[in-house]
Amino acid sequence: LVAGLEAARQAGKPVLFMKSGTSSVGAAAAQTHTAAMSGSDLVFSGMLEQYGAVRMPHTEAMVDAAYLLQ
Fold it and tell me: Is 58 helix (H, G, I), strand (E, B) or coil?
């Protein structure tokens, strides 16, 4: 993921990202399903910000942003 974000940043390409399991209930569900794969949402958001990725809150916003960026 980090390598892809870095490549997109170097190429000047926008990255839109949406992550599920961000509420406390969703995080608990993700923890039971994926165990060690789930991590701190704050850390994940920081990583996206570091690489210039834009986090989308829901599918409709992601589709709208992708349409505007085409």
Answer: coil
3-state helix, strand, coil in the chain (%, to 5): 65, 5, 30
- Report the distance separating Cα 46 and Cα 44, nearest Å: 5
Q: Give tens-digit pLDDT for 18-39.
A: 987 666 666 566 666 555 555 6
Question: Is 54 within 8 Å of 8 (Cβ atoms)?
Answer: no
Which residues, other chains included, contact 9 with Cβ-Cβ below 8 Å and sequence gap of 6+? 15, 51, 52
Count the Cβ atoms, other than its own, within 10 Å of residue 53: 19
Structure tokens of 15? 């990255």
Q: Specify whether the CB–CB gap between 46 and 9 falls below 8 A.
A: no
